[in-house]
Structure formats: C-alpha cells, structure tokens
Amino acid sequence: MTLHTIMTIAVLGAGTMGNGIAHVFARAGYHVILRDVEQRYLERGLETVAKNLDREIKKGKLPETERAGILARISLVTEMSAIASADFVVEAVPEKIEIKRAVLGEADAMLGKDAILASNTSSIAMTTLAAMTGRADRFVGMHFMNPVPMMALVEVIRALQTSDATFATTMALAEKLGKKPVAVNDAPGFVSNRVLMPLINEAAYCVLEGVATAEAVDAVMKTGMNHPMGPLELADFIGLDVCVDIMHVLQEGLGDPKYRACPLLKKYVAAGWLGRKTGRGFFSYG
User: Of 122, 123, 201, 233, which one is the catalytic site residue?
Assistant: First the structure.
C-alpha cells in the first residue's frame, strides 16, 4: 500500500479522538468509514465533527462551501464487516488492552491483505499490539493529539515488526493531512506521554501534599513556564481516568515506581470526577 493507492479510511471508535481523526481525513478529501458499536455514539461523533467544522468556518480556516462535502464523505457503520474496503485503518478505542485486542483482531480479519492497520494508542507498546494481528509488518502507531483538528503533531511509532514501506506511507499520509509527523521508536508512553504524564502526576502531588492549590499550580506553570494551559487543566481536558491508565502503562512497561499514579488522581477517578467530560475534575465546569 502506498500513499497514492489509499482512497478509503476506516476509523474505529467515534469518541473524542475517533471523530477528530475522521474529521481531518474527510477534510483532506478521503472517504471515511466511521465505525462504533452503537448508532448513538456514531451520531454524537458526527455532530461533534459538524460543530468543529462550524468553528473552523467561523475562524476563517475553512470555506463554508466545503462543509457539506466533508460531512458527506463520512459514512457511519456499526458492523465491522463494513470496513472491508478500507485501505488504511486507524483504531481509536479506549486505552484498555483487552478492548484493543478484540477490536484489532476483528478488524484484521476483515481487511484486504495490503491494508495498513494503525493504532492511535497513547501509551501501549506498539510491538505488543502488532503481534495481536496477522499483519504485523503493516501495523504502525499513529498517535494524534487532542483536539485532533487543531493540533499539528502526530507521533508515528514504528513497532519492531513495522516495514519500512508501511512507516514511510504513514509519515507521508500524516503530512497530506496537514499534520507534522514525528518519528518515534516504540516504548511505553512514546515521547509525548512519557514526558507529559509525570508532569501532570507531579502537579497532582503538589495539590495532594498541600504545596499549593490547583489554581496556583497551574498559574505557576502558565506564568513562569509559558505553558498555554496548566497541567491540571490539561489533565481535566484529557480525562483523569485516561491519565491514570497511562501512568499504569508507564509503571508496568518501564518498571519504575516513579511512574505510580498520584493517589489524588485515583481518588478523583473513583469519585467519577474525570474532568471536563463529567463536569468536575481538579476544576468545576458548568
């Protein structure tokens, strides 16, 4: 499979990352098959794409005349068999290895022999995921940043088994989307989350230990370190449950206790305070 032979994209999962990935592929002119387990998740995902397109139009980043065509290029499906015609697939299901194992295995069985299968996992080792499929040489990591339509970075992660051709095609595809692909070798958390999550975790420890309030911690990082968003506000944006899951992957994968999740993060998750998506995390959202 080469860049020029890729016509149809399948995205597995219509959540925050999945609908954003579908958005950027459809905006780049690809036909997108967006698959999830229930129609309501698909409709919610497409509604988010429509709202984000409206936001781009309002900011002058997209001509209004292109909106209808972009939405028309996204097909909503619940059956995995409907992705059989896809040339390139991006898995964007929750960061749980048992879910990924089931979804990747099912998708792998449906696809043509030349199709490339990519995972948007934010921390799980790509070599492990590749081994769960029958196309390990055509398996690659494509880690988009949230919010996908706005963020330029895509970490492109080579599994041990990934072929040079698959890796080169994926890098070129990311560039065609208008993204900035960065080559990263396979390791837990890659670069982005191996650096970011310990920062968020340490910020949570500062709150737990009474060093400062959440507001003060974020103010220091924004004002003193020139971060556009404080680490705790960013944690709320990502989802505190996702942060805890990634910390567990880092601790297990790297075997270092410094990656243990802060007890305050785990307490908030146990309470259902997951951040923006539930209306409350380190901060409250109306």
Answer: 122
